[in-house]
Design a protein that fits this description.
Elements (H helix, E strand, L loop, with lengths): L2 E5 L15 H15 E2 L2 H26 L12 H11 L1 H23 L2 E2 L2 E5 L3 E6 H16 L6 E5 L3 E6 L9 H15 L1 E2 L3 E6 L8
Parallel strand pairs: 7-9
Antiparallel strand pairs: 1-5, 2-3, 4-5, 4-8, 6-7
Amino acid sequence: MTTEIITSPNASPAASPPRAPSAGRSGLLRRLARRELHSPRSTAAITLAVILVLVAIWIAVETVLALIGIPPLLVSPGEIPAAAASLPTTQPVILGIAGALVLVLGIMLLALAVGPGRRHRHLLATDRVLAVVDDEVIASALAQQASATASTHPDGTIVAVGRRTASIRITPASGITVDRAAVDRAVAEQLETYALRPALRAATTISTNGKVGQ
């Protein structure tokens, strides 16, 4: 739950009048913003590398066992082509399931390779600085605003912040009526003051089951 403030090296002091950012400074801020909002694919790459290494070790072990005349752990490397060729006639169901799994795995790897990873953060940008705010901080602020507007206990307000939406769920005390439109307006005004990037759109849900003694 941290907020990072990144200042451009060419930024003017706070007391000086605002100036339009230069092209170089704007490019620097864009690169910094992308780095702070997107995560690297190192975890997926390491996982895939470990799987490939384990497969290579298994093939090496099976090869050594076949050379010294010991029964294989699973299947001898020399029997793999023949076993694969016989699958369409002997095990069509297994072949179909394996093909589906390979297809799903391929789609997942392609999505990981093409799509950028996203960190749970948003930007508050000005001409001089780049502020990076965790989504948990935004959710906490929205929960306080929503609970204050609804006159409910903070424990009865749950906020989940995504990339472009903030879902607010309020569980009032039994017998208390909450004006959802008022909550929506208050949260929307608060989000407008933040000027987040990407912009957030809030949606409020009022629970029909109130809490007793809240």
